[in-house]
Amino acid sequence: MHSLSELTLSLSPFRWNITYARANPDGLFERRVIGVNGTWPPPPIEAKKNDTLKVHAINGLDVPTGLHHHGMFFRNTSYYDGAVGVTQCGIPPGDTFTYDIPITEQHGTYWVHGHATGQYVDGLRAPFLIHNTPEVHKYDDEYTVILGDWYHDEHAPLLDFFMSTANPGGPEPVPKSSLIYFSHNGTYIPGFNADASIKFEPGKTYRLRIINTSALAMFYFWIEGHEMQLIEADGTDLQPQVANMLAITVAQRYSVLVKARETTDYNWAIHADMDQEMFDVVPEELILNQTATIVYSDSAQLNTPSLVDAYEMSIDDTKMVPVDAVSVGDPYKSTELGVFFDTFDNGVNRAAFNNVTWNLPVVPTIFSQLSMGADAENSVIYGPSAEVIDFNKTFEFTVINWDAGKHPFHIHGHKFAIVHKSWNVASDDPELNPPRPTGIIANPLWRDTVQIPPDGGAVSMRIITDNPGTWLFHCHIEWHLQAGLAFLFLEAPTLSQQLVKPPTFMYDQCRKLGIPTTGNAAGHNSTTDFSGLNVGPYPQKLGWTPKGIGALFACVFSAVCGGLTIVWYALVGPKA
């Protein structure tokens, strides 16, 4: 485990041997997990702005793996993005991949996690902090608060059932428990949930960096007896605003400033409650409410935790005000993505944008972008869930959530400006469906993960297309990504061919895994031949199809013939 000083002074690379380990963080069940260097949880990563982060990832598993440093831009280096099947083939068992990430543009609170076949659900996830020098806001000390849901079964069997005809309604696997734990100066503080605590000294101001590392669960977060001032969202510094409670969806990060009390008479509870609306069924044994402790004195009692009247998000995204104003103008083009869930024609519940469910391509998308020459500008070569966008423009995409559940959406390689949010696009009520702004928006919130309200809720986002490469946009509920709720943005493909140069060892690793690195999504140098590409399933066709009409005609014809035969037999048969 590396301390902050080791990384920032010597720039020592992190050596992550990704291995299986055993863990029982909730105290209820010991299970196999994916950890680092034989332990779990994987070590926190802390750096300073203008460092170069190097992570030597050694695959000690028996399956391919990869690491995604969530929220990083990877400018001109989208091959370090870590999305297996999209920006790399995966690290073969026994091989090493060095993620080399200059940290020149960004600071704030991030996290690193596996981005291959749901491995972060099994534990491959850790905080990743970038300290600004100096920080915009002043405080005496800081802690990182890690939240997450926790499963007792491994991801693979849970996914097999979730994506099966035995689960046609599509309810997601519900976690067995949740976790809250802490790190401080690059080291974990021992203890989980009720056994986890952080120390406060009277009169000091503390920054709490809060990360939701869940596969499914959103959390409501608040602190007894203390005021929180919201100062960061997904790496964007904010003008301080009082927040009584935060709703933190999957993959989001917030920072708050908390002023310690002046007395040490009591210790105080930190609450992290899972949002039960995210679960189709809440098992009786599932504890939704976890508490940790702020300790002023080891001899003090815990102030009796109180109940809240209702859960809330004190400050909506659209009301957060960045410290540094970055305006955004009108887009050169816009795309609308409608979220749908349904039982598709194979009997499996799938997720889809505009009724098209996403599947991994044969050729990882980055290699199609880099190998197809001028045809890389044609979005069709990447499969049915992709769009090519021009360089150095303002591009807008609107997600309309027609599903009954909330969905957290994340974009790779960018932050987006949130320019409009609706809680019901069909409503005439301006409170639920505010008018869209026009012209230049002076100071929108820029972040990388946003929650879209259910039942017709929508969010419009804009990005500046200044980062050539291959970028995934997806729901960060891991079960929904696996179910196909993803889309690809191919940014300036021909310019990417000049700027984006994957290291040779990446091609070697693809060969080891038997994965091609040239051609369209199906591996053919063609804009029309997609044989071998995994597409579908498709929405069920309702109403009368030609086959259905034919079958009905055959049934009716057979019934009529049978009836006539009976009549004939009754009238003529006995005499004959």
Strand order of the largest sheet: 11-10-9-13-18-15-16
How would you sum up the major sheet? 7 strands, mixed
Instruction: Compute the separation of the termini in Å.
Output: 97 Å
> So what's the overall shape?
globular
Q: Quote the average pLDDT.
A: 94
Which percent range fits the helix content?
A: 10-25%
Strand content: 25-35%
Please give the number of β-strands: 32
Can you count the helices?
7
Provide the structure class: mainly beta
Low-confidence stretches: 1-11
- Kindly provide the radius of gyration, computed on alpha-carbon positions and rounded to a whole number of angstroms: 26 Å
Question: What can you see in these coordinates?
Answer:
There is one protein chain. The chain is mainly beta and 576 residues long. The chain has seven helices and 32 strands. Strands 11-10-9-13-18-15-16 form a seven-stranded mixed beta sheet, with no helix packed on it. Strands 12, 14, 17, 19, 20 and 21 form a six-stranded mixed beta sheet that branches. A six-stranded mixed beta sheet has the order 23-22-25-30-27-28, with no helix packed on it. Strand 22 (333-343) and strand 23 (349-353) form a beta hairpin. The radius of gyration is 26 Å and the shape is globular. The model is unreliable at 1-11 (pLDDT under 50).
Sum up the structure in keywords:
576 residues, mainly beta, 7-stranded mixed β-sheet, 6-stranded mixed β-sheet, 35% strand, disordered N terminus
Q: How do the strands and helices of this protein lay out in sequence?
A:
Blueprint (H helix, E strand, L loop, with lengths): L3 H7 L3 E10 L7 E6 L8 E4 L3 E8 L7 E4 L25 E7 L5 E7 L10 E7 L9 E10 L4 H8 L14 E8 L2 E3 L7 E3 L5 E8 L6 E5 L4 E6 L2 E8 L2 E3 L4 E7 L6 E9 L14 E7 L5 E2 L30 E11 L5 E5 L11 H7 L14 E4 L4 E8 L5 E5 L4 E7 L23 E2 L1 E4 L4 E8 L4 E7 L2 H5 L3 E6 L1 H7 L4 H10 L32 H26 L5
Parallel strand pairs: 1-4, 3-8, 9-13, 12-20, 19-21, 22-25, 24-32
Antiparallel strand pairs: 1-2, 4-6, 5-7, 7-8, 9-10, 10-11, 13-18, 14-17, 14-19, 15-16, 15-18, 19-20, 22-23, 25-30, 26-29, 26-31, 27-28, 27-30, 31-32
